[in-house]
């Protein structure tokens, strides 16, 4: 695959590849996506195949405008319209009733479709120039850490013929995936995945309680996904480094470890740690920590340690998304 850098100079190559049914690494403000024509079933099949993703886990469709995004839904509840008008383009994905003529693979057979208008200028240019909605899961192999730099996408897929190239626009600003919100019935909003749009902001915009289930309490029941009460992706205990990860409470003291360990700290590292240390945000900003999270996990994972020890971060704002990804990684 090509390393298209700088991204802006290679947009027409990327557009050409997508029109031919191939896949492209697309920078977004959250993480890099593996993008392809959302309306072409064989392209969708190759996304699942290249990622090694189970077909029960549906994809997000990316659009350049709210109008195009909503044209893919059968109906749009007022809460969804309100959220979209305040947040799009941005790190929000809405799960809405799907138009029946969309390819089944997109929705993994569910009656809903996940829609998002990303904010990254390169993603927006690509979407506009393709003139097509693009399906784009995070550009990692299933169960692996999401990519926040073009180099991560190359690491994942460099030998994959179906992936034409990655548009390199540098590191992603948000660093965790979009927040996925569904509306199981009128007046109810449910967060299926914490992400780049904090829960507090959704509450403030909608002025209602927003339901959310901690991944540690999620129940493994596909029927709940079918009824729109949860997302198939909620069950995936993934985002795991290959190295086992142990998750500590926020203020828990560093444990004694036998053998080499890597340490993932929020604001400061306790004195006397032996082995590689990553500090996510010395100034204690959850947003900065989110930006660095996946690159830090990849670095520790690649450092040859036997175990990664991580601390939970304060559970507010983007901290909720960070804790969610760390909880999943600890399942590994
Ligand atoms: O930030 C993001 O959302 C990135 C960038 C590339 O846009 N994309 C991303 O896609 O994270 P992916 O495929 O890695 O995650 C999609 C999530 C999964 O948890 C999936 O289960 C959920 O969205 N999802 C997709 N369609 C759904 C649906 N119809 N109902 C419920 N959940 C759905
Ligand atoms: Mg993903």
Q: Could you explain the architecture of this structure?
A:
By secondary structure, the protein is α/β, with parallel strands linked by helices. It is built from 11 helices and 15 strands. The chain has helices spanning 11-19, 41-51, 66-71, 78-87, 104-107, 121-130, 150-157, 199-206, 222-226, 286-301, 319-331, and strands spanning 2-4, 23-26, 33-37, 60-62, 92-97, 112-116, 134-135, 163-167, 179-182, 190-193, 211-212, 245-248, 261-265, 277-279, 307-311. The chain has an 11-stranded mixed beta sheet, sandwiched between helices. Strand 9 and strand 10 form a beta hairpin. Helix 1 (11-19) crosses helix 6 (121-130). It binds threonylcarbamoyladenylate (TXA) and magnesium ion (MG). Residues 137-138, 146 line the site of magnesium ion.
Query: What can be said about the biggest beta sheet?
Result: 11 strands, mixed
Give the N-to-C terminal Cα separation. 29 Å
Question: What is the mean pLDDT?
Answer: 94
Named once each, the bound ligands are:
threonylcarbamoyladenylate, magnesium ion
Estimate percent helicity: 25-40%
The outline comes out as: globular
Tally of helical segments: 11
Number of strands: 15
Strand content: 15-25%
Q: Low-confidence runs (pLDDT<50, min 5 residues)?
A: none
Q: What are the secondary-structure elements, in order, as H or E?
A: EHEEHEHHEHEHEHEEEHEHEEEHEH
Q: What is the strand arrangement across the widest sheet?
A: 1-8-2-3-7-4-6-5-9-10-11
Give the radius of gyration.
Answer: 19 Å
The SS-based structural class is alpha/beta
């Amino acid at each position: 695959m090509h390393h298209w850098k700088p991204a802006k100079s290679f947009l027409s190559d990327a557009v050409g590849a997508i029109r031919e049914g191939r896949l492209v690494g697309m920078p977004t403000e959250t993480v890099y996506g593996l993008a392809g024509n959302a309306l072409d079933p064989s392209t969708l099949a190759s996304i699942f195949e290249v990622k090694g993703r189970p077909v029960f886990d549906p994809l997000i469709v990316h659009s350049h405008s709210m109008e195009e995004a909503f044209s893919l839904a059968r109906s749009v509840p007022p809460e969804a319209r309100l959220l979209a008008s305040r947040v799009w383009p941005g790190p929000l994905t809405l799960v809405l009733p799907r138009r029946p003529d969309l390819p089944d693979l997109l929705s993994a057979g569910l009656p809903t479709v996940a829609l998002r208008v990303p904010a990254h200028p390169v993603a927006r240019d690509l979407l506009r120039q393709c003139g097509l909605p693009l399906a784009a899961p995070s550009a990692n192999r299933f169960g692996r850490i999401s990519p926040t730099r073009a180099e991560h996408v190359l690491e994942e897929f460099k030998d994959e013929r179906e992936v034409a190239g990655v548009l390199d626009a540098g590191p992603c600003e948000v660093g965790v995936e979009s927040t996925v919100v569904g509306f199981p019935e009128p007046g109810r909003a449910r967060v299926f995945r914490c992400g780049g749009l904090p829960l507090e902001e959704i509450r403030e915009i909608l002025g209602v309680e927003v339901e959310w289930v901690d991944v540690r309490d999620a129940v493994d029941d596909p029927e709940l996904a079918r009824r729109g009460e949860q997302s198939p992706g909620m069950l995936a205990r993934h985002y795991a480094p290959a190295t086992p990860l142990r998750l500590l409470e926020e203020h828990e003291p560093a444990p004694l470890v036998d053998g080499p360990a890597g340490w993932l700290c929020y604001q400061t590292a306790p004195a006397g740690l032996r082995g590689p240390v990553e500090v996510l945000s010395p100034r204690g900003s959850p947003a900065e920590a989110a930006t660095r999270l996946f690159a830090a996990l990849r670095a520790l994972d690649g450092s040859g340690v036997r175990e990664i020890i991580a601390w939970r971060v304060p559970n507010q704002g983007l901290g909720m998304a960070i804790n969610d990804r760390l909880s999943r990684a600890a399942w590994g």
